[in-house]
Specification:
The complex is a heterodimer.
Chain A: H1 5-10, H2 12-30, H3 37-55, E1 62-64, E2 69-71, H4 73-100, H5 105-123, H6 127-145, H7 152-183, H8 188-198, H9 203-220, H10 228-235, H11 238-263, H12 268-290, H13 296-319, H14 325-350, E3 351-353, E4 356-357, H15 367-370, H16 372-385, H17 392-406, H18 410-436, E5 448-449, H19 453-471, H20 474-484
Antiparallel strand pairs in A: 1-2, 3-4, 3-5
Chain B: H1 6-20, H2 29-50, E1 59-67, E2 72-78, H3 82-103, H4 108-127, H5 131-140, H6 142-152, H7 157-185, H8 192-195, H9 202-219, H10 228-235, H11 238-263, H12 265-270, H13 272-291, H14 296-315, H15 320-351, H16 367-380, H17 387-402, H18 404-428, H19 446-464, H20 467-484, H21 492-497, H22 501-513, H23 520-532
Antiparallel strand pairs in B: 1-2
Helix pairs in contact in B: 1-2, 1-4, 2-3, 2-4, 3-4, 3-11, 3-15, 3-19, 4-5, 4-6, 4-11, 5-7, 6-7, 7-9, 7-10, 9-11, 10-11, 10-14, 11-14, 11-15, 11-20, 13-14, 13-18, 14-15, 14-17, 14-18, 15-16, 15-17, 15-19, 15-20, 16-18, 16-19, 17-18, 17-19, 17-23, 22-23
The chains are: A mainly alpha, B mainly alpha.
Chain lengths: 488, 534
């Protein structure tokens, strides 16, 4: 074990985020009333500093702490994405918590702790570090899910999430230990060396690969490990749902890709078959079950499952070809998915019906009459989620399906596109309800969108991402290509 | 060619206009929208004269790198096939704004913005020379059209809108797969011209042909995929119906002509019998269905199925008469059917019914209207002297060269068209009114005359002087034919393979006809072909 003080400078962003989380947690009981808003600015300020620090780390790989952590462009890509999402979440929560009358300073503390966990996940080069990061992220999310203490649904979601999350962590840990048994290491580069040497001679290796796939499958919410998703997404406060659907998924993909490409790259042919099955099941269940949802949060939950399925197409393709364009397409897809999904959740969060959230599809009836702008934004997000040009969703799908065709799996691209056409039905149903039905309820408690400056920032950022990257994705594409070079 | 980016301006002016629309006063929204569409028309007109008819190359080409990592470019260009279609689109747009002047009273701003976005996308489709760019424009049209039908449409609009959307989307997803496969097979490029010059294996061509077919056949719509069309047409507001019938349907046939034929020549030849069969079924079935309709819009919708059958029939003849006739027919159908839909929209504004039974005997109260309606209907049934005659006649000549039976069956469509249209005119224009409401009807005002007269004039201009249109498309069409049927001197071996003997005859006829081509010469063409027949 070698340790140098210089290593600490490289993990300065992580340290800063954790410090900020502690500061927020300590200050919360001290501050009263409106001065609690300062916690928001502390959190946002920290994120801004970290963003600057990480942006300067987009360079060659540096392994630190004896190879437990690695600082590289790949990690930097995910971290920048995570800062962005966390910033948006904090801005959204600022308005949302006021509407919900939830005054918890620790809320921001937990967001930052979850972020710290995610940052560890995406820059870990060792299975145990990844596990630590996963746990830090998950534990914070369990608490945040249950923050609406008066509401049984929120508590139920939290309990369900915790039980299934703990279960999946167990499976992940079991896989890690078996892999250690088979290869004698938990460090990804060493595991890769051992596998390159001996191939798949050891059945233990296959078994541990399956366990890891299952463990990550829970975190990524792919079928058949998705059962928790709709209930948790529906029960959690919507700002937390948005955070989970986007940030936790991104971080899990970040860690997952590094483990399977870098560590288990020698078993590509084996795991790509597993993920092919998972991918088809995910596309099927995600898109079909979303068709019959009446609750927007549940519909978006199934939609996020389906989108993990599209991303898996890229993973399968990456497993079937040389070169890194397949993984790059997954990174691109998740980055673009961030904008549209977060935007959609932001509008759901701020659609109020009296004192509660208007989260049924019915509540969107005639929205275009009362809030033309909100309806237009929702239209853009839905169109993008359905993958129709000229939006970010189309660019993401174009690259994913391009990878599939490149890997010789044209049929998978065709299948994915057919599911995309099916998904258009439920996305467009929301558009139909907003634009083509007259508002029914004219009372004071009729659903309305509560606009606020912070919400405007969130919506402006997300819609700008959807439109700009839909028309001119090149900078983002180049960045993803640069980020994945390190994995090869 | 010239340094001025004609096509970019043409495409993006309406889009910018749509944004500008949201900054102007309520009272001037309609005027601004009209101004933008007229400006776009004025910009498009010089292209007609600047276009060099002696060249089959793409003209006014614009090129910019767009997504270099996937070699996707912003590449635009015009040839003799897209030029008439673009002019037709820009001519129709101001008319669509005019017809919606009072017909649309709710959310006028959004409505006009949707029309303008549609215009951008439609012109983009006809100009795009990069496959991804094409696909972006092709799909970008879905949402505005969905909203046009769903928000401003008739009572059953929601069903019609979602049906239109899902049919078209489901069709075009396979198109994207086909595009991606071609990208890898054709040397990592999305450039349409480059992709059209490569040769692909026959098995691959067959697969891609079906992928393209799914997208284009739904859009045309060809026979078993046409069921969205009557619903969409009937429920859409008049301007929406006009755009659907006049421009959107052409995109399907344009797709066949621009992509399927030159890129997949072997598969196109192989599937000619299938395409001909579907076309003839569409011609006859559409006409029969039109005969049975009591709703004017439905009648015209089914007549579109029938008329578009002529276009697909002509395209797959692979001879100069067939394809030029098909392109002519695309333009003609846009003008004539657009006119008919405008007429139905006007009468609906007055009587609030599209039923034939409710609109009987309009000649007395509305002489101007009745005159124009008769002109459009006569054009639609292909009366000599009108535009449709030229197109349908050329298609039939082309078909005759391929198979006499096919030509005979297709001409049944013309007879049936005469039946359902004359019967419609007999009732709507000259019937004996049911005495109570009709005399109160107001005849066309200036705005409505301005909406209809340009189309009526075009009907006769093209009908009597089709040569300007034909000369412009001639070289481009020949280029396509040279791709589908390899020229004898260089490809004698190919002729030994799979070229049907009748096509060979068609080819010989082509070569002779290049001299005596033209309208009046189409009859000559017929004769000269007969002489060449063994």
């Amino acid at each position: 074990m070698t340790f140098s003080v210089g290593d600490l400078f490289l993990i300065l962003p992580e340290l800063l985020v954790i410090t900020a989380a502690c500061v927020v947690l300590v200050l919360d009981p001290v501050l009263r009333g409106p001065s609690k808003d300062s916690l928001v600015w502390v959190s946002l300020g920290t994120l801004a500093i970290c963003m600057g620090l990480t942006a300067s780390q987009v360079s060659g790989p540096t392994a630190i702490f004896s190879g437990l952590v690695i600082i590289d462009a790949y990690g930097a890509f995910w971290k920048l994405l995570l800062y962005f999402v966390t910033g948006l979440t904090i801005l959204l929560s600022y308005s949302y918590l006021k509407e919900e009358r939830l005054y918890f300073g620790e809320y921001y503390g937990f967001i930052l702790l979850a972020l710290a966990g995610m940052m560890v996940m995406v820059s870990a080069d060792d299975l145990l570090t990844i596990y630590l990061g996963t746990e830090l992220m998950s534990l914070s999310l369990y608490v945040m899910t249950g923050l609406k203490r008066e509401e049984p649904r929120s508590l139920e979601a939290s309990a369900k999430y915790f039980v299934l999350g703990a279960f999946s962590s167990g499976i992940l840990l079991y896989g890690i230990s078996l892999l250690y048994g088979a290869t004698g290491s938990t460090r990804l580069p060493e595991i890769a060396t051992v596998i390159a040497g001996q191939g798949l001679s050891d059945p233990l290796l296959l078994f541990s690969t399956i366990l890891l796939a299952v463990g990550f499958g829970f975190k990524l919410a792919v079928v058949p490990f998705h059962m928790w998703t709709p209930d948790v997404y529906q029960g959690a406060p919507t700002s937390v749902t948005a955070f989970m659907a986007v940030a936790s998924k991104a971080a899990s993909f970040g860690a997952f890709l590094r483990v399977f490409i870098e560590g288990l790259g020698g078993l590509k042919a084996n795991w790509s078959a597993i993920f092919l099955l998972l991918c088809i099941a995910t596309l099927l269940i995600g898109n079909i079950v979303a068709l019959i949802q009446t609750n927007v949060k549940r519909m978006l939950a199934y939609s996020s499952i389906a989108h993990a399925g599209y991303a898996l197409i890229g993973v399968v393709a990456a497993g079937r070809m040389e070169g890194s364009s397949g993984i790059a397409s997954v990174l691109l897809y998740l980055a673009l998915y961030t904008f549209m999904t977060f935007g959609a959740f932001a509008i759901v969060a701020m659609l109020r019906k009296g004192n509660i959230e208007g989260e049924e599809i019915e509540d969107f009836t005639g929205l275009s009459k009362r809030h033309p702008l909100a309806a237009l934004l929702m239209l853009i997000f839905m169109v993008s989620l359905a993958g129709i040009p000229p939006t970010a969703g189309f660019v993401g799908k174009l690259y994913i399906f391009k990878s599939a065709v490149e890997a010789g799996m044209t049929w998978l691209a065709a299948l994915g596109l057919i599911f995309a056409a099916i998904s258009a039905y439920f996305y467009l149903r929301l558009v139909m309800v907003m634009y083509m039905r007259e508002p029914i309820d004219h009372s004071d408690t009729a659903p309305h969108v509560v606009m606020s400056p912070t919400l405007s920032i969130v919506l402006a950022c997300t819609v700008a991402g959807v439109v700009i990257f839909g028309v001119y994705p090149n900078p983002l594409v180049s960045f993803t290509m640069q980020a994945v070079l390190i994995l090869k | 060619m010239t340094g001025f980016p004609w096509l970019t301006v043409l495409i993006f002016l309406p889009l910018i206009g749509a944004v500008v629309l949201f900054t102007v006063k309520d009272s001037s929204v309609r005027l601004v929208a009209l101004g933008i569409t007229v400006a776009d028309l004025l910009i498009s007109l010089p292209l007609w004269w600047l276009f060099d008819a002696s060249s089959g190359q793409m003209q006014f080409v614009e090129f910019a790198r767009w997504i270099p990592t996937l070699s996707i470019n912003y590449k635009l260009g015009l040839d003799g096939i897209s030029l008439p279609l673009i002019i037709m689109t820009t001519v129709l747009m101001p008319l669509c704004v005019l017809i919606s002047w009072h017909a649309i009273e709710t959310r006028v701003r959004s409505f006009m913005a949707m029309l303008l976005i549609m215009e951008s996308a439609m012109i983009g489709v006809f100009c795009a020379l990069d496959f991804v760019l094409f696909y972006v424009f092709w799909e970008a049209m879905l949402i505005p059209m969905y909203l046009l039908i769903g928000v401003w449409g008739g009572p059953n609009r929601i069903y019609a809108a979602i049906k239109f959307f899902l049919y078209t989307l489901a069709g075009s997803v396979l198109l994207l797969v086909g595009i991606l496969v071609l990208y890898f097979q054709g040397g990592h490029t999305f450039d349409i011209l480059q992709l059209s010059q490569r040769s692909y294996g026959e098995a691959l061509q067959i697969w891609i042909f079906f992928a393209f077919f799914a997208a284009f056949a739904v859009k045309v719509p060809m026979f078993p995929f046409h069921t969205w069309l009557p619903d969409a047409h009937v429920e859409a507001p008049t301007a929406g119906s006009v755009l659907l019938a006049s421009v959107l349907l052409k995109m399907g046939t344009y797709g066949f002509l621009r992509f399927s034929l030159p890129m997949l020549p072997d598969a196109s030849r192989l599937f000619t019998p299938l395409m001909v069969a579907l076309s003839i079924v569409a011609i006859i079935y559409g006409a029969y269905m039109a005969l049975a309709q009591a709703d004017l819009k439905k009648l015209i919708a089914y007549s579109s199925v029938s008329h578009m059958g002529f276009v697909t029939l002509g395209l797959f003849m692979f001879n100069i008469q067939g394809i030029e006739g098909a392109v002519m027919q695309m333009v003609n159908h846009g003008i004539t059917t657009g006119g008919l839909f405008l007429c139905v929209g006007m009468i609906y504004e007055r009587t609030h019914s599209r039923q034939i039974a409710d609109n009987i005997g309009l000649t007395k109260p509305m002489p101007r209207y009745a005159t124009l309606l008769v002109i459009f209907a006569l054009s639609s049934l292909g009366l000599p002297g009108t535009n449709s005659f030229v197109g349908e006649f050329m298609v039939l000549v082309g078909t005759f060269l391929w198979s006499k039976i096919a030509a005979a069956l297709a001409s049944l469509g013309i007879i049936l068209a005469a039946a359902y249209l004359l019967w419609m005119i007999q009732r709507v224009a000259f019937g004996i009114p049911a005495a109570h409401v009709l005399p109160k009807l107001r005849d066309l005002n200036l705005r409505e005359m301005v909406t209809l007269v340009p189309l009526a004039v075009l009907i006769f201009v093209i009908g009597l002087f089709p040569n300007p249109v034909l000369t412009r498309m001639h070289m481009s069409v020949e280029k396509v034919i040279a791709r589908v049927i390899p020229l004898p001197q260089e490809e004698t071996s190919a002729l030994n393979q799979q070229v049907p003997s009748s096509t060979q005859q068609g080819l010989t006829a082509n070569v002779d006809l290049t001299i005596s081509r033209g309208t009046t010469s189409s009859r000559l063409a017929d004769l000269s072909t007969k002489e060449h027949r063994p």
